[in-house]
Amino acid sequence: MPAAAQIASARREFLKGLSALVPSVLCSPSRAAQGGPSPTTRPIPSTGENLPVIGLGTWITFNVGNDSVARDACADVMRAFFEAGGRMIDSSPMYGSSQAVIGHGLARVGRAPALFAADKVWVSPGARGPGQIEESRQHWKLPRFDLLQVHNLLAWEEHLPTLFAMKASGRLRYVGITTSEGRRHREIEAIMRSQPIDFVQVSYSLLDREAEQRILPLAHERGIAVIANRPFRAGALLRDLQRHSLPAWAAEIGCDTWAQFALKFIVSHPALTCAIPATRSVAHVRQNMGAALGPWPDPILRRRMASHVEAL
Amino acid sequence: MSEWWTYRLSSLLLFSPRTYYRLFELYNADVWPGHLIALGLGLALLALAMQRRRWAAGAVCAGLAACWWWVAWAFHLQRYAGINWAATWFAGAFAIEGFLLLACAGLGAGWRIATWSSGNAKVGLGLLIFAILIQPWLGLLWGRPWFQAEVFGLAPDPTALGTLGLLLLLRKVDDNGRPGPRPAMAWLPWPIPLLWCGVSAATLWAMQAPDAWLMPAAALLAAWRAGTPPGRG
Prior knowledge:
The structure holds two protein chains of two kinds.
Chain A: H1 3-19, E1 22-23, H2 29-34, E2 40-43, E3 50-52, E4 56-57, H3 68-83, E5 88-90, H4 98-109, E6 116-121, H5 129-140, E7 145-150, H6 156-168, E8 172-178, H7 185-194, E9 199-203, H8 215-222, E10 225-229, H9 236-241, H10 258-267, E11 274-275, H11 282-290, H12 299-311
Parallel strand pairs in A: 4-5, 5-6, 6-7, 7-8, 8-9, 9-10, 10-11
Antiparallel strand pairs in A: 1-2, 2-3
Chain B: H1 17-31, H2 34-51, H3 56-77, H4 87-107, E1 111-113, H5 119-134, H6 156-169, E2 170-172, H7 191-206, H8 214-226
Antiparallel strand pairs in B: 1-2
Helix pairs in contact in B: 2-3, 2-5, 3-4, 3-6, 5-6, 5-8, 6-7, 6-8, 7-8
């Protein structure tokens, strides 16, 4: 295919992907009730349910143990997240006290009807999975999870049948798998091809774009929702970027901060469903949710964003 | 989790530096005025180490065993395990170390605290003094507040360093007070404090703490001196 035709084809695909970015008032009742702008959403391919493109991760930030002051600070972050129209909160039994801190936050915030509860199963052998899932559910204090994922593919052959059975019996809505930092992508691909999963979670950021090669196109092809973890490389990317000025052209896509710049790059990929930045700061969660508002970079601007950051 | 070797140290860190140091702050607030008891115990161990009485070695080992058990239960199990699931294993290791020290206290009747004119004993005494009197305040140098101090007998790092210092002092001595080789049994309490120095260093390194070098440097010094025959240096 000639280069011009390739670009035209890529543009068509991209615009098709962008058309799935829906600024939805219906999906963010708290935000709509306040009359503020609603975050852009993307449909989960397996059901069409819309999810805001920015979620909330809890790795490190929500692991604060029994520190009541820090627990309340996390609850404030959750409140600000819901007020800005956020839905997906993601955690794992691996994340120390994070699940219990989410449960504390939900109790403090009160009803959070928009919540999309995403957790993981991380235990071997697989026979211990149901017990761990129940323990996680009790930490969150929820009747059920929306999404359960096999964390880092640990004992996935044993866990997936359990999760599919839970989904079939109505005790779970979606099933997924996760990896991070580019590990085991070939195995991830094989599972995406062979198992009826709804979600895949991988690391994807301005400087971690390996998923673009095979995982994201495959997810698009197979109708699998994609969650991007480590959007800021656990904060290291932002610490590096903050030594430099944000380019003036970032304003064209409505970015006021490097965090928004990094998140807009991620969630403007047509195959992405949402990114899950983690924070313990109310100001930062508001900034992050600002990245869910348009306008969006096109493929040319996305390449410019990546090149600019690589060159810094 | 497979492929451990593909993980960076920072990828395995479960908590932020703020949460880690706040853990000590809350712990200190909870156990106050236990610090006074811990300081008193530390000074008593130091005094015993300097007296070199016949029964001193056993008393020192028993006192240290109590410190390790306290840290296993009150710090690792009750608090650190809240943010680090590996802390339950640390608690187990610290409890085992307590038993090993107690075994030394019971079985090491012929042991003495070495005369501290030897190089090994000077280093041992230096590590003990450092762990009890200096290490708790080092955080001030790196901008941490005093109420996050890590105290000997209550917190794992100074307890491990002080123990290495005291273990360096343990010798089988003849009736004239001349040091002999270290009894085989006296090596048993060495691995766990040394391993803890490595665990602590890895944690601090992953948090990019400026004092991450301290514990491994002290452990290397202790291990090097322990391997030096008595009478040298």
